[in-house]
């Protein structure tokens, strides 16, 4: 997922001027991963990953899970 989202020039050209992208490593920061997984459980009723959590300026949330292929 990192290669598709964080190392792709086309994605970067869109994301960088519109969003602040933050990548949370489950292995490096299990404490932060637990916070996002808990939020996902509450918002969608399921857990799993990979996922994207979006927070708008009005603090509304949107959660997207990638489908396994």
Q: What's the helix-strand series?
A: HHHEE
| Largest sheet report | 2 strands, antiparallel
* Count of runs of 4 or more consecutive helical residues: 3
How many β-strand stretches? 2
Average pLDDT reading:
75
Low-confidence stretches: none
Overall radius of gyration: 13 Å
Strand order of the largest sheet: 1-2
Which features characterize this protein?
single chain; 69 residues; alpha+beta; 2 strands; two-stranded antiparallel sheet; 14% strand
Question: Would you write up a description of this structure?
Answer:
There is one protein chain. Helix content is 42%, strand content 14%. The chain has 69 residues and is of the alpha+beta class. The protein has a domain of 41 residues. It has a two-stranded antiparallel ribbon with strand order 1-2. 0% of the residues are buried. Pfam families: Thioredox_DsbH (PF03190). This is DUF255 domain-containing protein. InterPro entries: Ssp411, Ssp411-like_TRX.
């Amino acid at each position: 997922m990192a290669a598709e989202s964080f190392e792709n020039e086309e994605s970067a050209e869109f994301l960088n001027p519109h969003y602040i992208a933050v990548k949370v490593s489950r292995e490096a920061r299990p404490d932060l991963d637990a916070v996002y997984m808990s939020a996902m459980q509450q918002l969608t009723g399921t857990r799993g990953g990979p996922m994207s959590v979006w927070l708008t300026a009005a603090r509304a949330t949107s959660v997207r899970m990638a489908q396994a292929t």
